Amino acid sequence: MSLAQAPAETIVRPGESIQRALDSAGAGATVRLTEGTYAEHLLIRHSGVTLVGDGAERTVLVPGGEAPAGIPVLTDATTEVSSGIVIHAEGVTGITLRGLTVQGFTGAGVYAHTTSDLLVEDLVVRDNALWGVYVRESGGVRVLRCTASGSRYGGVALSFCSRSDALIEDNEAFANAFGIFVDNSSFAQVRRNRGHGNAAGVLVLNQAYPGEPPGGATDNLVADNDLYDNGLSAGVEPDGLGAAGPPISGVGVGLIGACRATVVGNRIVDHRPSGPSVIGGAVAMASSTEWGGGEVADNKVLWNRITGNEPLDVDISDNLDRQYFENNLVDRTSPERIEGCSTGGAR
Prior knowledge:
The chain is mainly β. It has one helix at 18-25; strands at 9-12, 30-33, 36-39, 42-43, 50-52, 59-62, 85-87, 96-98, 101-103, 108-113, 116-121, 124-126, 131-136, 139-144, 147-149, 154-159, 166-169, 172-174, 178-183, 188-191, 194-196, 200-205, 221-223, 226-228, 251-256, 262-264, 267-269, 283-286, 299-302, 305-307, 314-316, 323-326, 328-330, 333-334, 341-342. Keywords: Repeat.
């Protein structure tokens, strides 16, 4: 009987090339980074790779050197930008990223495209210009215990993941346009995250874009999150954060063109816009048909505390009769009376 050979492990130290180690280690390998700062742009080309640092804030990846050949241009970027860790090659699956900081890139901290079985855990993604963790057209995604801050668009974002089967859990997102952005993606669970100081804590969006895959945002779960003081101004230049779509500020949970979402057990408090916003409540539902999306319909809002928000705690602009509310603690809503929203609701 022969024993299966253990996957190879490669140790990389500051001054050595992470990219060289990734390329030579091959599929199924672990590349372990010791404490220190590494100035590189990385492209993961093999399946089953684990890239692990010595801990966030101890192992830090910053821009530097030449980007490896073959890194695709970041989708949606208006100019050529560079990202920190890129997973974008046909058939590459089963990637794990753990225990490091990725900061200061002009694109995304982590950019994953057309992959599956992706685990991103215990990362700090900080001050990356466009996105923190940005995942497109992928499935089987887990983003756990990460801190994402300082991005013009999203801290943690799923985009056009039609069957994401994603778990976004126990993360902290702040100082982004959208703390957690479920963009034309479905079957995601957004659970036990902290979102503060963004323009929107959690935004679920169904919107059509020219040249993009079919959209849709259905069957997403937003549960047990702590969302507070998301009053940053986004979509306004030069005084707001970037050009991340129309003006948004002061949103806890936005469901725009979303269907069959469940928003349950969240604390959504103290939202006050600091600039103009097309969304007028801490919890807001609206159609996106004028942007090529769809109706907001068949959503459930259950057992949430939604208080202390300006100008409204809950704002439903379309299809109130197709939403279900139960036992939510609120102060002010539009329309003024919503069955299942009251001052005697969830505590």
